[in-house]
Amino acid sequence: MNFELSEDQRAIQQMVREFAQGELMPRVRDLDREERFDPWVLKRMGELGILGLCLPRKYQGGGMDYLSLGLACEELEYVDSAFREILSVHTALVGLTLMQWATLEQKERFLVPMATGAKIAAFGLTEPGAGSDVAALESRYRREGDAFLLSGDKLWISLADVADLFLVFARRSPGRDPREISAFLVERGRPGLETETLHHKLGVRAGNTGGIHMREVRVPAENLLGQEGEGFKIAMSALDNGRLTVAAGATGMARACLEASVRYAKERETFGRPIAEHQLVQQMIARMVEGYESSRLLYAWAASLKNQGKRCTRETSLAKLHACDAGFQAAADAVEIHGAYGFSDEFPVSRHLRNAKGEMIYEGTREIHLLMQAGYALGSREDRPLRCSLPPWPFPEDVEAGLA
Ligand SMILES: Cc1cc2nc3c(=O)[nH]c(=O)nc-3n(C[C@H](O)[C@H](O)[C@H](O)COP(=O)(O)OP(=O)(O)OC[C@H]3O[C@@H](n4cnc5c(N)ncnc54)[C@H](O)[C@@H]3O)c2cc1C
């Protein structure tokens, strides 16, 4: 087991850190206050190669591994969840899922513009009446000649109002049968497709979250991802890709809260000494260290299994569950350490606390991950190989093309 980062991984970490702290940090408080998503962020992330960093070089990505993706997410969320969410949705939930399930032609059509940031992708699974219970989704599709017609509403979709491409899920017949669900790639601009932005959210206010509304949207048959009826499996495998990034992001939030708290505790004095000397404050700082370091190990473990091409739904779920709890606890403790100042947005910790609640909801709520872990422990759940697995790293397509 090697805990050292490679030179390339350190370089990615450093580059994203400089971007996040140098360019995003000075803007984030205003964006959060104004509840405004700034498309400039996408442009810069595309220019820097962050959006495609772990997509194959063959498709104009950076060809980096899954741990590098986690490191980038950690650095982005050190500043704000909204910036990390971009990688979670565009790169992991859609990009990696295309690597897993798309045909060669679909990869060339969709992954190349995604890798460079020319096109931004969103993931439309959740509906007004179906979140945790994915099989209850009601969006419908029907075949008409060489096309599919899609109708339905998706809600709480990150990047909904700014994306160019949507990976959406719909069912062929009413009911709850997951084998009736299929996955489609829908480009913005198709008649019948509209999007909206949700306002007044508790957190992720510098991010875009919204709805996708489809009324008889016609997509060509070649926009079907996987086979008809494989949509539920595709959605679950996508979440397995995305959860790694949420775990890594939450780890970055825990680190941000820890560092802010250490700084503040050394400066702020009560009863004639810095609050850092009070043991109850030290206890909170120690708990942040514990949460941060253990979360880091868990997401690195999941990333390393993904690099080996192994299915690791259990480990990824555990990393997501643990890191989101640790991030939330760290943010709550950090607000406490900052006293009344933690209650304002003068310091970033209150923003982290609001954001922390979001990541305990999306990509599987806390309760869903607890149920999953109990299922693995009790033997009612096990990970079997999928028809299309996430490729190991270095990516076979890059190796074949002499690019790795
Ligand atoms: C900021 C944000 C961004 C998001 N981005 C996206 C996105 O990009 N794409 C997308 O498709 N979705 C997205 N979502 C939606 C998110 O994935 C769902 O909100 C989530 O899956 C939970 O679904 P729900 O809100 O319908 O809650 P519900 O499923 O209705 O759950 C409500 C409560 O009941 C609990 N519960 C449900 N079932 C059980 C059970 N069996 N046992 C015990 N407790 C249970 C839940 O844990 C929760 O506490 C986003 C959400 C947020 C907040």
3D structure, described in words:
52% of the residues are buried. Strand 2 (140-144) and strand 3 (147-158) form a beta hairpin. A four-stranded mixed beta sheet has the order 1-4-5-8. The chain has a four-stranded antiparallel beta sheet with strand order 2-3-7-6, covered by helices on one side. The protein has three domains: 7-120, Butyryl-Coa Dehydrogenase, subunit A, domain 1; 122-229, Butyryl-CoA Dehydrogenase, subunit A, domain 2, CATH 2.40.110; 233-380, Butyryl-CoA Dehydrogenase, subunit A, domain 3 (Up-down Bundle), CATH 1.20.140. The chain is of the alpha+beta class. Helix content is 52%, strand content 14%. It contains twelve helices and ten strands. It has helices at 7-34, 39-47, 66-79, 81-101, 104-116, 231-267, 279-307, 313-337, 339-342, 349-359, 366-378, 396-400, and strands at 121-124, 140-144, 147-158, 165-171, 181-187, 193-197, 209-220, 224-225, 269-270, 273-274. Bound molecules: flavin-adenine dinucleotide. Residues 89, 123-126, 131-133, 156-158, 204, 209, 358, 361-362, 365, 367-368, 371 line the site of flavin-adenine dinucleotide (FAD).
List keywords for this structure.
Butyryl-CoA Dehydrogenase, subunit A, domain 2; single chain; Butyryl-CoA Dehydrogenase, subunit A, domain 3; 12 helices; alpha+beta; Butyryl-Coa Dehydrogenase, subunit A, domain 1; binds flavin-adenine dinucleotide; 3 domains; four-stranded antiparallel sheet; 404 residues; four-stranded mixed sheet
